[in-house]
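Lab notebook, design round three. We kept the backbone fixed and only want residue identities now. Task for the bench partner: fill in a sequence for the structure below.
Input structure tokens:
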């Protein structure tokens, strides 16, 4: 665990540096990082698959060193998702630079490129198994993790998803845990904020018609708000709009007539800006609540506080929220690498946490070769102080952790509140 001196117990600290799924479009950090005390092996699937020379290489290079711990980095290093997977790799490498060993045994990061492709994902996963890794981190995109998960499950290799929000990743594979909450958790958090902080008895959901992403979020928000506010179903109104719609006058009039002072908007940031612009122009007094899809540069430039209603949105990380001591450790390392004013991609913070949890699980297991013990330790993680908040895994390997509430102020994202797991689910 993390001690008060910011060191991981059993993991010595080195002298290193002083976005979630495809629908997210956060800043992509530069994946390049000096390989101090690290051997990064990129497994080239096309060139080495089925090759006897490769098998000999694996036996000689990986399995000949019993004092080295190998952690697999299962990411799209090329292909359509490469730029989205880059922040995950960045966070892993930042953490590795700070914590490069476990109880004196050096940690190697073994990189496997799944090429943003389902077929290659299975092959890349198999190469990691052959490389004798102890734990796998990744991949970006839930479908790639699911493809690799079939291989990891067969081999009993523990894996930690970083930004996957699809429930299937942990529901289908016992070996997988995740550090990013499933998307539906944002509905509970938004409801808690609306009822407890905004103290309203009436709320509306402005939902895009035929949008699968919004269905569960709408259900969770509505049911939770109805209970928390004490107003029951009479306190909730759901109004739909069409994708690409530019005029929200009809929907906003219905919400105004209902008397809702809070509007939950589980949709894209640009649609949110259009709706808030319309509300501001017509003088409707409403507080808009969005999801982590609103954390984009477009929202920073599109939201005009003086001309639009007040707003906030749920998020998995904020550099302004000092959740644990490790939050400042991560932020210092990130800005030491990318500049004093650099704003970390949330995926990098989540990846940082995934690496640290992997190390703690290996240490607790007592042996990097005992995958069963590592998995037991991993799934038993409780109150781990990560950069993105305190993390406990439930019986399905999903994180019980806080969600941050963020707003836009002076052209910047600012954390204004944190919704604890107790507040999300409690009355």
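Proposed sequence:
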């Amino acid at each position: 665990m993390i001690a008060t001196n910011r060191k991981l117990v059993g993991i010595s600290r080195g002298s290193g540096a002083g976005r979630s799924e495809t629908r997210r479009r956060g800043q992509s950090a530069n994946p390049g990082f000096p390989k101090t005390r690290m051997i990064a092996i990129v497994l080239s699937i096309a060139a080495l698959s089925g090759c006897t020379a490769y098998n000999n290489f694996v036996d000689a290079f990986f399995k000949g060193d019993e004092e080295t711990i190998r952690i697999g980095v299962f990411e799209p290093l090329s292909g359509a998702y490469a730029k989205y997977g880059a922040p995950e790799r960045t966070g892993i490498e930042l953490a590795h630079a700070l914590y490069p060993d476990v109880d004196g045994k050096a940690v190697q990061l073994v990189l496997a490129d799944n090429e943003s492709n389902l077929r290659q994902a299975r092959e890349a996963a198999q190469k990691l198994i052959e490389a004798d890794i102890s734990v796998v981190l990744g991949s970006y995109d839930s479908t790639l993790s699911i493809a690799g998960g079939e291989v990891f499950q067969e081999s009993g290799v523990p894996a930690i998803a970083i930004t996957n929000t699809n429930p299937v990743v942990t529901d289908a594979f016992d070996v997988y845990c995740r550090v990013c909450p499933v998307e539906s958790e944002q509905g509970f958090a938004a409801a808690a904020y609306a009822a407890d902080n905004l103290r309203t008895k009436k709320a509306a959901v402005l939902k895009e018609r035929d949008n699968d992403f919004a269905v569960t979020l709408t259900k969770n928000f509505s049911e939770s708000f109805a209970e928390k506010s004490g107003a029951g179903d009479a306190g909730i109104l759901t109004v739909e709009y069409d994708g690409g719609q530019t005029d929200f006058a009809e929907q906003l009039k219905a919400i105004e007539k209902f008397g809702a002072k809070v509007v939950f908007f589980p949709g894209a940031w640009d649609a949110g800006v259009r709706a808030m612009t319309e509300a501001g122009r017509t003088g409707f007094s409403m507080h808009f609540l969005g999801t982590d899809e609103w954390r984009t540069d477009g929202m920073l430039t599109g939201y005009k506080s003086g001309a639009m209603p007040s707003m906030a949105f749920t998020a998995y990380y904020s550099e302004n929220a000092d959740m644990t001591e490790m939050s400042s450790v991560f932020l210092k390392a990130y800005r030491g690498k990318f500049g004093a004013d650099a704003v970390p991609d949330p995926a990098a913070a989540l990846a940082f946490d995934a690496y640290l949890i992997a190390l703690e699980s290996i240490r607790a297991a007592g042996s990097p070769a005992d995958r069963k013990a590592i998995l037991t330790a991993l799934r038993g993680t409780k109150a781990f102080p990560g950069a993105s908040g305190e993390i406990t895994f439930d019986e399905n390997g999903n994180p019980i952790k806080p969600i941050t509430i963020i707003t836009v102020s002076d052209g910047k994202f600012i954390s204004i509140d944190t919704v604890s797991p107790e507040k999300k689910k409690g009355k």
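Keep this in mind before ordering anything: The chain has two domains: 41-181+320-396, 185-315+405-425.
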